[in-house]
Design a protein that fits this description.
mainly alpha; Protein Binding, DinI Protein, Chain A; two-stranded parallel ribbon; elongated
């Protein structure tokens, strides 16, 4: 019988790996953003690196921890039932084997439903957190760019999916933008936790949409 493999779907763990999306090109020296007419920003990474987003995503981890624990417990139960059924071999009567297989099938289906529901709910909540902060960051970016005299701010995308293929390291304002946003938001950075530092597979983060003109 095919073994069901449980996969953690804490989509909001991506918040702890966003540094991967905001790294400078390999070999590029660290430097301060230039006072240039055109600068770049890793917008999605900037949003997720803010203290506000980190606080909300940490809250989601706490919210979903009991459900995650329940899913893991059910997965352990399914694994144990599979081992017992396999170990029994030909010792079971046809009726007993059928009953055990039915119990196992029911547990596997419940596990799949619970995992799917967990993924859908956590994805919806984490994307809502991202969108809420992204809208605020977008508005803040307009003022920030004007104050610094930038003629244009270009989203550089990520290293995995770049929007622009090269820009000098000193043109990137991601870190400076996050620091400035945190300062005006007044939200303290959350304490470091033992959360995993690598993000699980997840759908592409939604691109922020500028508010429609009134």
């Amino acid at each position: 019988m095919k073994r069901f493999v449980w996969i953690s779907t804490l989509l909001f763990a991506v918040a702890f790996s966003t540094a991967l999306f905001a790294q400078e090109p390999m070999g590029a020296p660290a430097s301060s953003p230039a006072t240039a007419g055109t600068v770049t920003v890793a917008f999605n990474a900037a949003v997720l690196q803010t203290a506000e987003a980190q606080r909300e995503l940490n809250a989601l981890q706490t919210k979903y921890a009991p459900r995650q624990a329940q899913i893991k417990s059910l997965n352990d139960e399914v694994t144990e039932l599979q081992k017992q059924l396999q170990a029994a071999g030909d010792k079971l009567s046809d009726t007993e084997r059928a009953n055990r297989e039915q119990t196992l099938s029911t547990k596997e289906k419940q596990l799949q439903r619970d995992a799917d529901d967990f993924k859908a709910d956590s994805q919806t909540d984490s994307q809502q957190v991202f969108q809420n902060v992204a809208q605020k960051m977008y508005t803040f970016l307009q003022t920030y760019a004007q104050q610094h005299g930038y003629a244009m701010v270009i989203d550089r995308g990520t290293n995995e999916a770049p929007v622009i293929w090269y820009a000098a390291a000193n043109l990137d304002i991601t870190d400076a933008l996050v620091k400035a946003y945190n300062a005006q938001s007044g939200v303290a950075a959350p304490a470091a936790s033992g959360a995993a530092k690598t993000a699980p597979a997840s759908p592409q983060k939604p691109r922020p949409v500028a508010p429609a003109p009134k």
